[in-house]
Amino acid sequence: MKKLLALPAFSDNYLWLLHNGQHALVVDPGDAQPVLAALQAHGVQLQTILVTHHHPDHIGGVDELRQATGAAVYGPARERIPEPLTRLAQGHTVHALGLEFSVIDVPGHTAGHIAYYCADANTDEQGSPLLFCGDTLFSAGCGRLFEGTPAQMLASLDALAALPGHTRVCCTHEYTLSNLKFARAVEPGNAALFDYQARCQALRAADLPTLPSTLAQELQINPFLRSRQADVIAAAVAHNPSGPRDEAGIFASLREWKNNYR
Ligand code: ZN
Ligand code: FE
Prior knowledge:
This protein is an alpha/beta fold.
């Protein structure tokens, strides 16, 4: 049996820690301190560090954790990440804690961004698949396009959306409530958004994470996974009437709308 923990870091990051009571893996440790504290609190030893992309809030603690624990580091093939690490791309697998994680290329937020998918994580919620998607997919949102194109991000989100609906989506930022404000502006008639927003507001009021989400949930409420729905297309076109109307163009209009939304 494995335990999945969301360790808060900085203002709104989560460092995901998975452990089996003896050994642990951590994803995107932007800061070593919360990880070291959790390892000590749970009496577990860090074996594996998984990195999704090169941004400092995802790699800042890697060197310190490697030195403190001797953990093996895995990361994307084409990004600048401190060595030594094993470089991964689409189709590669990582074995850790007796689990197999497959690597999915998800360019868009950064050019070489990868995600890690485990089909059967054997956690407390029995048998749920797990997805560590870095800054690609957020609950009710997606990452900004710093290095990739809208078409790339759309294809990356399509690849994630094709995973089983009960996959638990471990996003690295608590952006859910602000994303939901935007989602409701895009789809004022989507009733699932009201219910989900109420649940997330209650979680945040109790100082609890809104994550992990599930893919089935995201498919109902995330405008960036719903950019081919008639209502979402209509909203994107109304917001940017002169924008291109192909799939990538609609997605681009939606992403730009969100960039400027307050
Ligand atoms: Zn990032
Ligand atoms: Fe980030």
